[in-house]
Amino acid sequence: MNLGTRKLLDHSFTALGFGSIIIMGLALLVVLFPIATKGVGAFVFKGTIEHRKLLLSEFHRGDPKEIVKEETETNRYRQKVFDMLAAFDQELDQMDYEQQSKYRSSYDQVKTSLRTLLGPLPGDSEPALTRFQYGQTRWDKAEEKLHGLLYEQKWDYSNPDVIAKPYDVSRAAGFAGTSLVKLFPYVEENLDKMMMPEWTFYWGFFTESSLDAHFFGGIWPEIQGTIFLAIGAMLFAFPLGVIAAIYFTEYARDGFLTSMLRSANSTLAGVPSIVFGLFGLAFFINTLHVSESKSVLAGSLTLAIMILPTIIRAAEEAILAVPKTYKEASLGLGSTKWNTIVTVILPAALPGILTGGVISLGRAAGETAPIIFTAAVSVGAAIGLGDVLTSPTPALSWNIYNLASEHEAAAEIRHVQYGMVLALVTVVLLLNLSAVILRARISKKLKG
Amino acid sequence: MPMSLEATETKKNDNSSTGALDIYLPPERKKVTGGGQPHVVAKNFSIYYGEFEAVKKVNADILSKYVTAIIGPSGCGKSTFLRAINRMNDLIPNCHTTGALMFDGEDVYGKFTDEVLLRKKIGMVFQKPNPFPKSIFDNIAYGPRLHGVKDRKTLEGIVERSLRKAALWDEVSDRLDKNALGLSGGQQQRLCVARTLAVEPEILLLDEPTSALDPKATAKIEDLIQELRGSYTIMIVTHNMQQASRVSDYTMFFYEGVLVEHAPTAQLFTRPKDQMTEDYITGRFS
């Protein structure tokens, strides 16, 4: 191969490598950017008077006097809507039956729309679910609902060859000639005065429990559950893993049994996490009865089994990477094997061991499948430290999945889901960051 | 037992050495008092790596307080023999021994021998400087702490004494709390010597202690060996025959696991009894 070709090959490979790194970075940005922006939207948004009312009555936060003042102000504008409804009610009564039935169903839709927008209308009985007791708490949602009030969505089935397309039909047109026609432009124009949107930094999102199955409130029980589960898993897996690694590297003789154990460990690292989940249910709960049913303890144990191989391997590598000369020096000074391990080998291997540990911690925090059957519930209050042995807990990973797929009002609370994703990514990122910093510090100390 | 040193010293004055070997003439040395008893005794001592016999039926007396050099070509078993004395070979799987190796009349490989205590009495310095990634102070204090010294004042005393003995005190006394890995190679090796001295061993085993050092640092280590001669029994494995002649009183020549010749250094280098020894020191093979 001549010099020219060689150089060309080198250059093209450099370009290829650089290009793939750029593509990877862009892909990461594409994923992380919406997570960040939409996630932030969960706690920084334009909150309406409904949000402040909710905070006051359900969480006892906010200035009552201020809120009463705002309520009077917004009610002034809302009253006109109510008056229009009352006027139309009377108008409807005077119509004959045919005309009545013409308006009845779409009038009900208008009222439903208004209820979701503003909360219960005068004369309604108190709804059972919290989500129906308040209007829209977020301005972006309110604008969305306003659209639903102004336009009825219909489907275009005219072409049988393509999937039906939705199109909007103005509701106002349906009420042409009645007194209700005025309501639509009025609401459109005065919605902000009826809702009083204000930029809100809702820190309670991270510190409060949710209300009405994540419809309102925060995600603290989930965050706490994630932390409990991850730390619980580490409590079991880290000491066990390090001890196993010490055994493998310092005590085990190379033989059939050792190589079997090693390959078993490697295999364990490749087992799909859902298998661990089922194993946790079958073994820890149904066989060992560590708890009556799902509990943080059972979940932690399951996660611990899952991350154990990673910890063992990382610790093993770290211990093997300690120069043999340290061991010789220590033993040469009349140190016992155990003393050498504790005072020389483990400190030198600590950065590597910790890195493995924290990566595993991040994994334990993020895994969903192992806790489905062993620890996670979709809705629940934050549990106390004393309940971890017996109580299940909500956790971020499982609740993200739950909100995305199983929640009855999933579409209404996407922002909560994004907020949870952001919280989870942040928790894992912080854990990894702390590992990097810790490792750098210890390495620096070791290098002098 | 090799011929006594005094005998060779008188014979040296005969001036009967061959011209080619003159460079190996050892320098004048101070007299050693209270030494010369057999400190380590090997009787038909063999070391095996699995089936392979690395050291073959060695019989030798190592005399106390003197410096004994072990020379020989690579792979001749000299390091293996040295490391057998404080049982560092235990780290190598499948390594076992036959025959007897006695230290102070006690069987080194005896059933009830505590190898940890043994290594405290027989210190070792390795080919590559291997300080711990700790401060200079903690490096020296590591051994004493292991053996139960906790008092800070006592430790400080030991550290200073050891560093002074290793001729390192003046260079590091103002930075004892700095990481030992920041020292130069030569300083690190002297630190390793000091660390070994801190546990007050009786024997000092040096396994090619200067092979990773530059000539200046090597000279310092050699001076240090002269300083320590007479206080400790010293055994040094070296590739450098001039170094062996410079620092040692006795020399052992190993070839393919066999102890070919063991004699006072001046004699071995000037009038070797064995043809193989002469071939080796005159550079006919290596």
Write the layout of secondary structure elements.
The complex is a heterodimer of chains A (448) and B (286).
Chain A: H1 3-40, E1 44-47, H2 49-59, H3 64-94, H4 97-118, H5 130-133, H6 139-150, E2 151-156, E3 165-170, H7 171-174, H8 183-195, E4 198-201, H9 204-207, E5 210-211, E6 216-217, H10 220-251, H11 256-269, H12 273-287, H13 296-320, H14 324-332, H15 337-366, H16 369-372, H17 396-405, H18 414-447
Antiparallel strand pairs in A: 1-4, 2-3, 5-6
Helix pairs in contact in A: 1-18, 2-3, 3-8, 4-6, 6-8, 10-13, 10-15, 11-13, 12-13, 13-15, 14-15, 15-18, 17-18
Chain B: H1 5-12, E1 38-49, E2 52-63, E3 67-71, H2 78-85, E4 95-103, E5 106-107, H3 115-121, E6 122-125, H4 136-146, H5 152-165, H6 169-172, H7 185-197, E7 203-207, H8 215-228, E8 233-237, H9 241-247, E9 250-255, E10 258-264, H10 265-270, H11 275-281
Parallel strand pairs in B: 3-8, 3-9, 6-7, 7-8
Antiparallel strand pairs in B: 1-2, 1-4, 4-5, 9-10
Helix pairs in contact in B: 4-5, 4-7, 5-7, 7-8
